[in-house]
Amino acid sequence: MRDVAALVRAELTKILTLRAVRLITGVILALHVLVQAQNVKAETEAVSRITADGMIERFPGVVRPAQETLVEYLATSSFQLCLFLPFVAAVIAGQEFRAGQLGTSLLAVPRRGLLIGAKTLATGGFLLSVAAVIAAISTAFMYATIKDWNPGLLVSSDAWTAQAKFLAHAVLSGLITFAVTLIARSTLAGVLVTVVLTALTMSQVLAVLAPALDALVPLSAGRNLILVPEEGLRLSAGPGHAMVVLVVWPLLTTVAAAIFLSRRDAR
Asked: Tens digits of per-residue pLDDT, 50-63?
């Protein structure tokens, strides 16, 4: 167990030394701050117009319970930026195939299954830390928005649950790209697969033609996990189904990555 922990720490240290990872992470966090800052005024005005019966109109003609709406907004404001986290995972995985670094790693850890497990845990830990910072930024801006109405909302059980759902999606979706990149041995391939899967959700093609298939797409599962169905918003599955999808995808792709790595050379 100590050997595994030491290996995970070593892999995490390797991740933290990657300049590209630090750069992309910094850009994501800076972009999140910029987007949140631009929305503060409009969201604060919407909160100031919350009715006596607790209803809010964030969008023209759409009136919903304020607490439910703001908790959902807390998670979705982070969810929008976590779309970029898989690209970080692709860079982390792709660096192993540059300049024969994978071969060097295998000299230190000949057991390839153990190496993949340690890399996956380290990558998951890094993605979790970045996602937690994104969630903290969202919380800070939300506080600025609702501090004169109900700041206690941010520490309510609903808020914690919403944040947990976001963190789960952020980590699990990133690990899918990480594993796919290991299988393909290419950062570009991992990015392209992620873009294709994202496009399937964003285009809404499957949601219209085959909702059951749409529910199996990782980004759609994240949406189904975090959003609350309402009039005008139909989800392709419930949160339980979404969580199963988000767990199965990285599990299967990681196992596949371990199998592929065990049957190939270390170049």
From this structure: 998 889 988 887 88
